[in-house]
Structure formats: structure tokens, C-alpha cells
Amino acid sequence: MAQARLDVASPISIDVKAGKIIIEAARTTTRKVNLPFSEADLLVGLDAHGAHEDELAQPSAVETGA
């Protein structure tokens, strides 16, 4: 990593060329995407029970197409 001038926070790109995996520093031309919500906003009110609500829900017949 030191030889490539990378650290654990460095953005990278990964490609496969001629059967080899190539990992290199990402080009600096990538633009930052501004999302409408922060991670903190999305996690508000989330608890251990609610985190898996999709596994607890019982889909209706309309939702399953039955």
C-alpha cells in the first residue's frame, strides 16, 4: 500500500484484465454524490427488533400474487 501511495481510506478502482485483478488508486475525477439523507438520518429509530422487520412481516395474497 505504501508503494502505491494508498492508505485504508483511499478510494480505489478494481478491474480484471487478462485474468488478473488490478487494484489501483481511483481517478480523482470522480464526483461526490450528495444523497438526500445521511446515514444517521436513516438509522433514527432503528433497533434490534425493527432491523429485521422484513423477516417478521407476513405478505398478503395480493403482494405474493396468490
> How is the quaternary structure best described?
single chain
Helical proportion, percent range: 10-25%
Order of strands, main sheet, comes to 1-2
Cα-atom radius of gyration: 21 Å
Content-based structural category: alpha+beta
Shape, principal axes of CA atoms:
elongated
With helices defined by DSSP (H or I, 4 residues minimum), what is the helix count?
3
What's the order of the H and E elements? EEHHH
How many beta-strand elements? 2
How many domains?
A: 1
Architecture overview:
The protein is α+β, with helices and mostly antiparallel strands and 66 residues long. It has one domain. The chain has 3 helices and 2 strands. It has helices spanning 39-43, 53-56, 61-64, and strands at 12-17, 20-25. Strands 1-2 form a two-stranded antiparallel ribbon. Strand 1 (12-17) and strand 2 form a beta hairpin. The chain starts with 11 loop residues before the first strand and ends with a helix. The model has no long low-confidence stretch (mean pLDDT 83).
What's this entry about, in short?
The chain is α+β, with helices and mostly antiparallel strands and 66 residues long.
Draw up the topology in text.
Blueprint (H helix, E strand, L loop, with lengths): L11 E6 L2 E6 L13 H5 L9 H4 L4 H4 L2
Antiparallel strand pairs: 1-2
